Amino acid sequence: MKVNIHNARFLLSGVKREHYPTTAMPEVAFVGRSNVGKSSLINKILNRKNFARVSATPGKTATINFYDIDEKLMLVDLPGYGYAAASKGERKSLSSVIGEYLTERKQLMQVILLVDSRHKPSQDDIKMLESIKSAGGMAVVIATKADKLSKKALEENLEMIIETLDLQDGDILFPFSTQSTDGVEIFWDYIYDYILYDEEEEGEDA
After folding, report:
1. At residue 206, does pLDDT exceed 60?
2. Residue 203: which pLDDT band, with cuts at 50, 70 and 90?
């Protein structure tokens, strides 16, 4: 089942389950630290400019944004975490918003963790991946801003990310850059292999 990325629209924002859309399409969510590049990634995979909603103040986006892709797939942008200037109350509120979505949303197929390829994953990243896996998801990690590193440095940092997050065989990790389409192709391959695969076609091919 292929999707037409040109038929994409922002659906709504919410902070709790009463606000979630009533659609039945499978959902894939992105989560990561503030400024890790979630909005840039969404714009890139949909071949749009300024499509994803961003906050004027870093770390202040506290809503879950839902994007309807061709009425076949929902991409979900979860609030960024780890903003240094956020108060204890703000951090607690963000944790509650993300946690409720992870545990309550039946349409959720996978949460993809975004980490900055230039840096070692933080304790917040480690805890988030643990939350994703405990909620029944597999480990799918995208290392953003890969164009900021040399090929050698990127390879070394990917190894560091694997070790820090304790990724295992079967887990998925790939670099992503807004300067090329390599990561875009890998992302959509993942979607078609794991999320939108056609069981009938698979049976016919067997």
Report:
1. no
2. very low
What's the predicted TM-score (pTM) here? 0.91
List, as one string, the DSSP characters of the chain.
----TTSEEEEEEESSGGGS----S-EEEEEEBTTSSHHHHHHHHTT-SS-S---SSTT---SEEEEEETTTEEEEEPPPB--TT--HHHHHHHHHHHHHHHHH-TTEEEEEEEEETTSPPPHHHHHHHHHHHHTT---EEEEE-GGGS-HHHHHHHHHHHHHHHT--TT-EEEE--TTSSHHHHHHHHHIIIIIS--HHHHHHH-
**Residue 94: pLDDT above 90?**
no
CATH of 8-193, one of 3.40.50.1000, 3.40.50.300, 1.25.40.10, 2.40.30.10: 3.40.50.300
